[in-house]
Each structure stands twice: as structure tokens, then as C-alpha cells.
Amino acid sequence: MITHPAYTVEPWCLRETRLDLDVIAQSESLFALSNGHLGWRGNLDEGEPHGLPGSYLNGVYESHPFPYAEPGYGYPEAGQSVINVTNGKVIRLLVDDQPFDVRYGQLTAHERVLDFHDGLLRRKVQWISPGGKDIRVHTRRLVSLSQRSIGAICYEVEALDQSVRLVMQSELVANETLPRRGIGDPRDSAALVAPLMTEEHTSGGTRVSLLHHTAISGLRLGVAMDHLIDGPASAQVSCASMPDLGRVTVSATLQPGQRLRVVKFVAHGWSAVRSQPAVRDQVAAALAGAMTSGWDGLIAEQRSYLDDFWGGADVEIDGDPAVQQAVRFALFHLLQAGAKAEGRAIASKGLTGPGYDGHAFWDTETFVLPVLTYTAPKAAADALRWRHSILPAARARAVQLGLRGAVFPWRTIAGAECSGYWPAGAAAFHVGADIADAVVRYIDITGDECFAQEVGLELLADTARLWCALGHYDPHRRFRIDGVTGPDEYSAVADNNVYTNLMAQHNLVSAADAAAQYPDQARSLGIDPSEGQRWRDAAAAMVIPYDDALGVHSQDEGFTSHELWHFDQTGADQYPLLMHFPYFDLYRKQVVKQADLVLAMQLRGAAFTAEEKIRNFAYYEALTVRDSSLSACTQAVLAAETGHLDLAYDYLTEAALMDLDNLEHNTRDGLHTASLAGTWIALVQGLAGLRESNGNVIFSPQLPLGIIRLAFTIRVQGRRLHVEISPGATQYRLRDGAPLTSLHDGRPITVTTGVAVSEPNRELPQRTAPTQPAGRVPRRHRRD
Amino acid sequence: MITHPAYTVEPWCLRETRLDLDVIAQSESLFALSNGHLGWRGNLDEGEPHGLPGSYLNGVYESHPFPYAEPGYGYPEAGQSVINVTNGKVIRLLVDDQPFDVRYGQLTAHERVLDFHDGLLRRKVQWISPGGKDIRVHTRRLVSLSQRSIGAICYEVEALDQSVRLVMQSELVANETLPRRGIGDPRDSAALVAPLMTEEHTSGGTRVSLLHHTAISGLRLGVAMDHLIDGPASAQVSCASMPDLGRVTVSATLQPGQRLRVVKFVAHGWSAVRSQPAVRDQVAAALAGAMTSGWDGLIAEQRSYLDDFWGGADVEIDGDPAVQQAVRFALFHLLQAGAKAEGRAIASKGLTGPGYDGHAFWDTETFVLPVLTYTAPKAAADALRWRHSILPAARARAVQLGLRGAVFPWRTIAGAECSGYWPAGAAAFHVGADIADAVVRYIDITGDECFAQEVGLELLADTARLWCALGHYDPHRRFRIDGVTGPDEYSAVADNNVYTNLMAQHNLVSAADAAAQYPDQARSLGIDPSEGQRWRDAAAAMVIPYDDALGVHSQDEGFTSHELWHFDQTGADQYPLLMHFPYFDLYRKQVVKQADLVLAMQLRGAAFTAEEKIRNFAYYEALTVRDSSLSACTQAVLAAETGHLDLAYDYLTEAALMDLDNLEHNTRDGLHTASLAGTWIALVQGLAGLRESNGNVIFSPQLPLGIIRLAFTIRVQGRRLHVEISPGATQYRLRDGAPLTSLHDGRPITVTTGVAVSEPNRELPQRTAPTQPAGRVPRRHRRD
């Protein structure tokens, strides 16, 4: 069993039983609470010590000019960076004359528990102050899944052996000092160091509110807090506000055994267009709503929301407690990332940290949305509606680049391209096809016709138009897409990347199908039948490079002619390679950062024969170094499909433990949302073999030795399907709704409520396990 | 005849007969004086008005940090920019109470003449002050070709109708205010705005000196001036110095017809290592030397130097006065760029302006050095010795990039890579082969064995080693060089660029030959015979992409499969394309910025059949937009070789008039040194068909209609060969030395002093002229 240094392995929670300041920033990410709109990192209530203080509102960013040593046409002029908004989590405590600070005095007990069932972060601390006063602090924190503007904290402190004089300061802190990033880092620019300009601050009673705006992006932010105080009758309450600080102070003397309990309600709001009074009122209204629910009401709503989620999303795995914990941790955080995003992006770190500047990438559509589509479909729809909302920016970018249709940004918060390195960023046009793929999957799996007509068709059409503008027919009427960058960031600007071309093909056909299905909407979007035919023609003529001599697909034209990377001369300390070798060297050799052709075999499986998959997987395994967290889960899926179950499981656990074990040493900056999704992908698309085919779900289940049961529930077309895999057979149960037809190992099955269907699992022949580059074999995972 | 708006067409000078302030910056470049060590732009003596004040010392630069929106391994951390050193040209004049400033009062006569025979810039001005005083100013200026530290000015002023009270201020001005470049331009950084830090300033008598250093690059600069004054006995002289200003003031009252004449001697010096006293003394010594020569001595030395130069370099063309002027203008400026560089680079703008940050590129070896090799061979050797001197930096760069041998920088002043965009810069490894090509040509044409052993072999070996590290053998034992950028900057990071591979092939074979020729030196450089054999093997196995279907070479692998650029949809105002289209779009389509494959056909002509040259030239003509000044001359050469003489002549004149007609609208930033060289290349390598073959020179002369005679002298192996082409025949005369064997149209000829050899010119069949992209046909040049 994997033993986390600081976290116990439990099925329904993440528990920390000692406070290790060396990994405090990692813990802050793991214990982050979010609802997709508001994110609170797991900072200690008293604010310090901290690794990285963080409170985020989805969509709130500041712009900063992009510097270039040599500028070029079409380069983005400015970046967008997520900013740390006003911190509403802070509750400081003075114990006699000593601030409660775990770096001083003596921490005699510490526990934090993030509960996946009820969505609360609990903390229990016992502390002896440097002056010898013994207290117990018990806090519960939530970011509401039912009221998107609301975070709340129930803070209880108890005097133990002696009476103590307590002063509790519940605060709103704007423009917190953050750790510097590094010399010359453009994100240390003045605009980002103290991004919030004050507009107003008010206080009265137990209530304080602050309003700010950002200087360049021009967003207005409001935050307000109110409190319910329960303590000795002699307790005194006062409040104060300053431009960057709001404070409610409670002073009390507690006798031994006596308690002071404060419930803090914090409401956040922001707008790019609404006026100061409007934002002020919006925040006050949200706060009033939360106060009406009260603390008990909020936690009941939270539990109810999560019960509903788990009822359609839980994954059980018998035989591996660590993976059991990891997959629930992953699903919980994926829900947190998307639940209430409502028209904003799901960023690559969710709202758990400032990594990647808070940007959303293609990861969302390719890794996160498949999971949400099957487990929290409304969140998936919301994320795609965000893409739809930035179509104007994507169309403008296409015009700027001399193209047609929509060019979605490689990385963005609000829609503008924010990639400062075009070969890896702006040339990765596959993001458009990834969005289209997510649209098609969402529509197929949910049957959401309204979405298909309002959002889906237009996204499909504008992405399809891009491929027609980007590609061209060669003299033999083959459709080529030259000079683009596929998923593998160790290749760039290559011709006919197989992944890109296959995804574009799917994009084109899906757009044509959708236009045929919704002719009225198609007409209103200016799609005439000849355009649909052009899409089909391009798809049919798509070039897919194949190396006859090697008997494998070439990741792009010429790739298999390139020199093999000298893995035997590359030391373990030279990974990730991009930190130790120049791009030009990586680009010109056969070395793969992350699944590219292998991802194509997952997402466009029907485009490959089983034999091709086996050969391709083996060939690219030997080249793939997994310097990206967006690789292990895909390798798990294809390892499983090609009959390498143990290898699949090793990749599965790598994806699953990415953040819990801090495998890439950067969990401090936020969770790897796509890798969290990869845990589910590796289990459900890998071991259970879930795919979509003609709008239906299909399965090819198998279990590696040692895993005695894998069970999960997914939402399909408004119904919940429960799948339970044993070593020899798989049982399908429909929890609700009309009968569902599916395939098990290629055989049709129909599942009806109340009747379990059991099917034997296939048995794959033993095959020689593929090899990885020297030193890049995945960690062998012992299952207990 | 081309009529320059401001310059008359004369065979031996450039003359400006009116002062047009709209083109003053262009004039400053055209009238720049330089000796390769010190450069003075043609600023007016009185300093203002100016377009761009400029005084440069070869090798003097300041560093400035390079910003990156997204940093990457191996990116240069700092740039190097040429700085404007202390201006020693300034002589201000107060006429009664009015400063002599042509923007005020009345300029009744103006003439400036740059004389290619004596190397002087003469200025004659007649001016009526706003107060009605009439004066005549006559100045002569030189930058000495014999004393590299020295510039000098003879300044004469005469009172005409009335007596005038004159105050003349001869100055040294440090940290002049320069025009700003643009918002956010990193070269407007503080380090470059006022780059000179004062160290000392002294004055006494008619003499002032200033010492400064640069803050980051740590270079020490000294400048001193002294004067000879000849005027009325009542003239008063005083002097003063401040940290950034030295001034000698001469006050006199001139009666009508009376003159004041001041000769100003300015000595510059700099060092990266020498102490303050040492640099101070070095400058004082140089000044003493110049004072000893005196003004007349300096102009006599200048004339003598130039007589010697023209005796081995002149080009005469009968039938086109504008081109006659242009080729002498070009040769004069090429000499100025390289004459006394002595261990420093020849920058792309010489020392005529700050364009391209004062960097040297591959242009020097590929365009400038062939001309200097045949006309001023010592300057060519010096430039290559500079490359040899930066070998340590080039080897360190190779190590940084994981390669072996030497990686010469794409652009640099002092040796460090200064390219901020690696796909166009750092991946253009052909620079190494270009240097090797220049080394081989220099050795072959001069027979300089000492250079070959001291410098040549090591340069050839270290560049050859790079190709072995960069390329690899595919399974069929073909040697591939993948992922590099050739000369055409509208393609990047492509596999097996024909130009690069052919130049690398030549580099490898030449290195092996040199190692065999100098076995002792080879051994001392660690080259064993097996390494030489590896070089030959790689050269023999080199992949040269050829498109069988089209019957042409593919510029790189895949190039001819790419979409054709939509020239018919590209407007005239969308050139240069890189200002209006993103790189990714240019890279992925068939569009050529500048000769690439066509340059390969010039430099590696024997690698192509005559038929291949005809087909290739026609194919690439239709794709080449000449958005670079490094193209027209090469197209001229191949147009001539493939029998399109009129087209060749059009390209010839484009190269010739690049700066005189300001064709690229940026002559203000300095002259296009490579295009100046292109004038000679187009005439001598184009019309006369000069090539090298097995160490001999060969000719294939022909003249377009209207050109009745082309004659030129070149230096070959210590001798001067005079070639005179008439429409029907060519006459060869050896001016001195042992008999010389050559080829005329493939037939061997031997030329002996005193005996002219006459050979008939070949007649090429009429062929259909190739076409250019819409709107990119070269300007038709009318010859009178």
C-alpha cells in the first residue's frame, strides 16, 4: 500500500494527522474547497503560516503586457493571469497576548479532514500558547455547492485547563502579499502584485463589505461577510473597515471548558459590466441568502448536493484502498472545479491554485469533460457553453491569422489567446477538434437536444470551418493539414499530425451530420448543403501518415524518419527534458512528451485496427517520456485495450496519485485537474473499456490480478447505469429510466431497471509487454 | 536613367545638391564614413537637424536582458546592442547671435559629395542667418583608412558681404539623446538610452579628452580631440570639459572675405580589459600620430590607400551610369565596412547605422566576404579571424545545445547568441557552413597557407563536427539533417533543407581535405583520420530532397507538398508578408522570402545539372517574394546562368539601388551591406559568371542588350586579373604575377602578364522568362 507521508488512506476522505510545514503548500491545494465559481485554498484559518494564500473567483484576472525579445505578427500583446481575490477565510486569534500561530507554542494535536460525502473541511487543533494557555480549536469550512457566491466557516474555540482572554479577528484581506515567483517573471509585474483598487469599504455590527476593481481588465469585485456569535455574555464585538481590510473583532474571556463559537458567512461577487451599487447589492443579497439558510442549512444543502452526485458518479474498487481513495478524491475535486462554473471556464488547476496563470487549455475538453459528461453532465454543458460564449474572440483570432471559422485559444481565461510561444501554443489547432469531440460526446451521452441546437451546432460548424481554411488538397486530392502542433509538445509545427487529422475528420463529419439534423439552425448559421458536403469531402480525403516499413502510423509526416532520442545518454536528472534541452533538439528527434498518436487511438479507436493499435502502442511506448501529466491515463487506456493490464494499472496509479503523492513536485500551484480526471478515465475507459459508438456506450471490461471488483455508476441519457466488474464477468444494472442498449465486448446487451445483466469478460492473449525509455518505466504499484 | 530625387548620377562620387530634411536619415547612412573600426554617420557638422546621430566603434555594445513571455531552455538571457559612442563630429557655429542651423535663416547653397577616389566627404554651404549675415561654410571630413582610431574634419567658414562675429564650438558629446524606437522596445531600456558612464574628463589648450565605460558589458571607451586653428590674429580659444561634454571654443570676428579654418582631429579607442590609464594613453597616442601626419598627410594616406584598392577592385560598366555609380558606391562602402575591422565583425549595416542592433549575421560570409576576397582579401581574412576568435563562445553554445563542434550565433556583436526567436535564428545552423564556405573560398582565391593552418582548418573542423552531431543516418544509411532553418525565413525547422545539406556536404569534405593537407595541425586539433573519414561518409550519404513528380528539388522535405501561397489574394500593401501574416501561416505554405534553393544553385552549382537549374529556378521564381534584401542578387546570378539576362539585370539593379533608392524604406537605420555586395555579385558572378572550381576561377560571361562593356579587376592568388566583357567576346589581362590558369565557358585559358587573351562569349538559347508572384515582378530598369 502506498503510504502518503502526511495523509492516511481512507475511502471517503483525505485526512492529515500532523502538520508538516514542508508540504503545507501541497496540502493547501489538496484541501482546497471550490464550487467552480469561488475557490478557497486550504490555508490555515489564521492565515499564517502559509505556502501560498489563495482565493479565486472564476473569470477574475488581470492583464499584463507580454514582452518579446523579437516581436511577430499576431503575437498576443497581453497575458491574463488569475489573481488572488480578497481573502475571506482569515480568522485570527489572540490567546492572552500571543497570536495563535502554530510556529510558536506547542501544537499538541492536529487533524484536518476533507470529507467527500459532506464536502466539509474539518480541522481540529489543540495548542498550548508560548504563555502556557491550552486551547482547542475546531473549525469547519465549506464553499457552497448550492449557493455559488458563498463560503462559510464555523469556528469554535474552547479553553481547556485555564481561563483565557481571547480576541478573535475575522477578516477580509485584499491585496495579500504573495511569494515572489522569480526574477524577471512577467507575472511579478506591478499590475499583478497588488491588483485590487479600492472602491468602497463599509462596516457595521458584525458585517463588513469591500469593493474593488482591477486596473487593466476593469473587473469589479465585491465581498461581504457577516457573523453569528455564540459565546459568553460578556463577549464584546466591534468592526472596522479600511480600503484593503475588513475586520470584525470578538473579545471574550473563557473559563476552562467554556467555548466561543463564531459562524462566518462570506459572499463574493464580480462583474465586468455592472455598476458599483449593483455589485454591492448582489453581494449583500447573496449574503442575506446564506444567512437565511444558516450554517446548518448550508451543510444540509451541501450534503444533499453531494448525495445526488455520488449516486450517479461513485466508483468502487476492491483490492486497492489507495486507488479507491484517489478516485473519490478525484471525482470530488472535478465536481468542485465544474459544479457552478456556469458560463466560465474550467481551468487546468480548477480554482485550487494559480498554476498556469489560471488558464484553461484543451485538457478540459479532452480529459475533464468526458468524466463530467458521465457524472455531472450539467457541469460539462456549462463548460462548453463557456466555449460558445468566447466564439466572438475565437472568430476574431481566426481573422487575425488569415483563417476562417473559430480559432480557440491555446490558453486563456476570458477568451483572448495568452500563449507567448506560438509553436507550442497558437499552432496547436487541435483544440478546436477537441472541443468538437466534447460537444459530440456530450450530446450523444446526454441526448440534450436543446444544447445541440443552441450551442452544439455552432461550435461544430465554426471548428469545421477552421479545418477547411487550414487544410488544402494536394494534387492527388488528398486533404493535408500542414504545419500544426499536435498534443505532443516535443514535436511542433509538423505536417499531417495523425491526432489532429483524425480529430479534424471527426469534427468535419460531426458538423455535417449536425447541420443535416438541424437544417433550420444550420441555415440561420449560414451553412448551406454544399458547405456540409465540403466538410464531408475533406474528412474523406484526410491524409493519415503511415510508415509502411515500420508498420506503424507516423505521429506526423516525417516523424518516424527522425533520429531516435538518445535515451541511454539521458540522465534521470535531465527530466523533464524541456528544462534541459532546447526545443529544436526535442522537435527534431523521436521523443514524445505525452500521448499523441496513442490519444488518437483512444478517441478515434475505430480508425485503427486492433493489430495497428498493438504495434503503434508498442512503438510509441518506447518513445514516450511522460513529461506531461496529460499522458499516463491515456497510456493506461491503450495499455488495457492492447492487453497489458499490469502496465495499464501502473499508469492508472500514476494518474491517480499525481497530486496525492506530488509526483510532478508542483501540486503546490494547484491540482492537476486533467490528471484527476485521468484516474476515472484509466479505470472506466481503461479497465472497463468504456467508449462511445454511434451515440451508444460500449464496454470491454477486464481486471488486473489483485483487483477483485470494480463498480461504478455513470449517467447516460438521463439514466443511471451501474456497472460492476468481477474478475470473470460484468454485471450491468439500470438504476432508472427506459431500457438502455449497449455493447459488451462487441455483443449487444439491453439493460432494464430491476434486471441485472451479466456478461463474461473477454480474455486477452498474453503479449510481450512494451518497453519504455530507459528510466521512464512507470512506478510499479503494489496493491494491498 | 534612374533619377535619384536628391543625388546626381556620377561615376566616382555620390553628390547631394539640395538638403531634403525628409530623407536626412537616409543621407546620413549613404554619406557615412567608416574604416571598419570607427564609423561616423553623415550627420551635419553642427549636429542638428539630424535623422539619427551616430558614431560607432566596432565591437562596442551594451547588454540588455531579453524578456520572454514564455522562457525556454537555451534561450539567450541577454541581447547585445550597438551603442552610439561619444560624438566627435560636432562643430557648432554661432553667427552673431544666431546658431548656424539650416532650419532657420536661408540656405542659399548646399552640396555634399562623397568621393570614392579620395574617401572624403565634402560639404559646401552658403547660408544667410536670420539676422541677415551671409556666410560660406566648407568642410571636409574623413575617417582614416590608414590610422584606424582617427576621424578628422577640416572646417572653414568665410564671411561674405558683411563682417560677422563667430563662435565655433568643437565638441565631444557623450550620451546624445536618440530618437525613441517604440513603446515596449527592449532597446529603449535604460541601459541603452544613456549607456556611457563617465570615468574622467580633461581639457587644456585646444585639446579635450573623455573616458567612459559601459555599465553591463564593462567596456572602456576613450576619445580625445585636438585642433589646428587658422584665422584672424584676434581669435580667442578656450576649452572646457564635463562628464559627457568636451568643448573647444574659438571666437573670432571675420571681415568680408576673411576665413576661419579649424582642423579637428578625433581619436577613439576602447578596450574590454585595459585600464583607465592605458586607454587614456592609447587615445592620446593615436591623436599624436594623427597630428604628426597633419590634415594633408591624412588625406594623402587616404588617397593612396584608395588608389591601391581601386587598382584591384574597380568595376566599369558602359551603358548604365546609374549602375556604374552604384557599384563603385557599393565597393567603397564594403571597403569602409571591412578595411580596419581587424579582429571584429563586419555587421549587417557595417558602421553606418544601428539597424539590426549592430549585429553580424551569415550575410557577411555569404555575400560580403566573396566580394572582399576578390577585392580586399586582407579584410576578408580579418573577418574570418573574428569568427575564429569567437570559437570559444561557439563551442560553449554547442555544448549548451547538446551538440559538438561549434554553433556560431545567428546574430551577435561579441560572440554570444543574440537571437530572441529561435525558429528563425538559433535553428539556422547553416551559418556554420556559410563560414566554412567563405574560409574555403578565401584560401583558394588567395592561396594564404598561413591562414589555412592558423585559422582555416580549425574553423572547418569545428563546423564539420557540428554537422556530424546534428545529422543522423536513417535505416538506409542516408545522412539526414532534420529540423533546421535554411536561408528562407518563411520556412523554419524543416527536415533536409537542400541549401543546408549541400553546404554541410561541402563543409564536411573541405574539412576532411584540409585535415589531410595539414596533418600536423589536424593532429594538434584532435582530428584523427577516422574522423576525417566520418566527415566524408556523412557528406557522401547526404539526403537531397527531390520531387520526382514536379521534376524539381524540394526546398526541404515536404516543401513542395505544401499549399501554394495565395498570391492573387495578397495585396501590395501586405508586403513584407511577415508584417501582415503570422509565422505559422508562412511556414506551412509554399512562399519564399529570399533565395534558398536558388542560393544553393549559386554556391553549390556543381550539385545540379543545367536542366535542374533551369527548372528549379523557374519553380522558385514563382514563389519568391523578395521580402529580404538578401535575395535579388542571387536571383540575378541564377537568372543569368539560366539564360534570362534581362531578368538578371532587373535583379541586379534592385540590389544596386537598394540604398540609393531606399527600396526597403529603412536605409535610415544603415546601409544594407549584403545588398551592396550583391551589386558586385550580380555583375561579376551574374553577368561574368565568375565561380570557383577546384581552387581556380572560372567565367561564363554574357551581357544583356544595352550594356556595351563590363570590365573589372579581381585579385587572385596575389595577382590582379582584369576582365573586359564586350557583347561578343571577353578579354582577360593579367596585371602582375605568374601566369594564371582559368576556364572560360568551360574551356581552359592561361593568362600571362602583357598578353591579353580574348574568348568569344557563349550564346544561350532564348527561353520563356519565368514568372514571379503577382505584384512581385522586379522593377524594369531602363538603361541610358
TrEMBL record, chains A, B:
Which keywords appear in this protein's UniProt record, sorted alphabetically?
Answer: Glycosidase, Hydrolase
**One function term, GO molecular function aspect:** hydrolase activity
Q: What range(s) does the Glycoside hydrolase family 65 central catalytic domain occupy?
A: 328-680
Q: Which residues form the Glycoside hydrolase family 65 C-terminal domain?
A: 690-751
Q: Where is the Glycoside hydrolase family 65 N-terminal domain?
A: 16-271
Q: What is this protein called?
A: Glycoside hydrolase family 65 protein
Protein family per UniProt: Belongs to the glycosyl hydrolase 65 family.
The ranges of region (Disordered) come to 757-784
User: Has UniProt tagged this entry with the keyword Endoplasmic reticulum?
Assistant: no
InterPro entries listed in its UniProt record = 6-hairpin_glycosidase_sf, 6hp_glycosidase-like_sf, Gal_mutarotase_sf_dom, GH65_N, Glyco_hydro_65_C, Glyco_hydro_65_M, Glyco_hydro_65_N, Malt_Pase/Glycosyl_Hdrlase
The family database entries (Gene3D superfamilies) matched by this protein are listed as: 1.50.10.10, Glycoside hydrolase, family 65, N-terminal domain, Maltose phosphorylase, domain 3
